[in-house]
Amino acid sequence: MDLIDLRSDTVTRPTPAMRAAMLDAAVGDDVYGEDPTVNALQQRLAADLGFEAGLFVPTGTQSNLVALMSHCERGDEYLVGADAHTYKFEGGGAAVLGSIQPQPIPQDTDGSLPLDKVAAAIKPVDPHFARTRLLALENTWHGRVLPLDYLKAAHDFACERSLAIHLDGARLFNAAVACGVPAREIAKHFDSVSVCLSKGLGAPVGSVLVGSAALIEKARRWKKVAGGGWRQAGMLAAAAQYALDHHVDRLADDHARAAALAAGLGDIPGVKLLGQHTNMVFIDVPADRLRELDVHLREAGIRISIGYLPTLRLVTHLDVDDEGVARTVVAFRTFFAG
Ligand SMILES: *Cc1c(COP(=O)(O)O)cnc(C)c1O
């Protein structure tokens, strides 16, 4: 029985065709800037998203970290969603390693940071305060797509207030596919964008940070300092290239399957459907039945993550097909019928 793993879109395994592309990759020492496949990936994503330069790094966490450290100096501050990944799920790296103070802003339910709240959090120029330098947004956020007109407003606001603006676009392409626009239409509102290749796009490892040549030069230095100076990374870049060639448009399938999963689960007494956004479905089940549900699903060959968020999050991806969705709905139905 195939395992259906709905814990995250990070669990995908490289397809046979992706593995073949990895085996064939030309490689060199990336610390010397000599890996042709890494260089091609960086140039390609920068060009596609409308930026001068790109930097291929091991993780989204390192990508956001080096972005923040390139925008901000010691004693600077960045404004960030109180439930944003960068603030909440990256070990406080910007503060720990970059001496950058986060100023969390409570988010609206769609993930946006209300700009009046952002404005109120900007510190006066005065030695009492950290220097507010950067606004960081996330799209998608818990699967939710930030509206394009909000991105434009946030961009204009940042310009007016002389703030730089960074996007944690771990799932940028999910947002673009959901909006039906090229990813650059989202990216154009930012000074830097971090994109994960290892989520819905299905590559085994890697993120790319894009920005101006000057910003990426700084980020390259911080990447090395953070221990991210990898060598013949071209095999990983080849997987990323393959993902960009073959796995972007199909994100629509993940979104459709998440919608089907939501529809199926929403019909089951005992399951409270909280929402479905892009490739994520959020549900509540009675807390006293959680453990039992987990055991039941494992026996049916289904994994979900329990305890990571207050609600249950089910995520569709490359390795979940229509049959996987149907089997999941049946497993939930059997459990709540019993
Ligand atoms: C996964 C994720 C990251 C971090 O990526 P890692 O590769 O796991 O370090 C950053 N931001 C968001 C929104 C993510 O979902």
Automatic annotation (TrEMBL):
Protein name: Low-specificity L-threonine aldolase
Modified residue annotations for N6-(pyridoxal phosphate)lysine: K199
EC number of the protein: 4.1.2.48
Family: Belongs to the threonine aldolase family.
UniProt-listed InterPro entries: ArAA_b-elim_lyase/Thr_aldolase, Low_specificity_L-TA-like, PyrdxlP-dep_Trfase, PyrdxlP-dep_Trfase_major, PyrdxlP-dep_Trfase_small
One GO MF term: L-allo-threonine aldolase activity
Domain Aromatic amino acid beta-eliminating lyase/threonine aldolase as annotated: residue spans: 5-285
Record Gene3D superfamilies: Aspartate Aminotransferase, domain 1, Type I PLP-dependent aspartate aminotransferase-like (Major domain)
Pfam family, one: Beta_elim_lyase
PANTHER family xref list: L-THREONINE ALDOLASE (PTHR48097:SF9), L-THREONINE ALDOLASE-RELATED (PTHR48097)
Keyword Metal-binding appears in the UniProt entry: no
GO annotation, biological process: glycine biosynthetic process; L-threonine catabolic process
Keywords: Lyase, Pyridoxal phosphate
A GO CC annotation given for this chain: cytosol
Lineage of producing organism: Bacteria, Pseudomonadati, Pseudomonadota, Gammaproteobacteria, Lysobacterales
Keyword Lyase: yes
Required cofactor names: pyridoxal 5'-phosphate
Transmembrane regions: none
Quaternary context: Homotetramer.
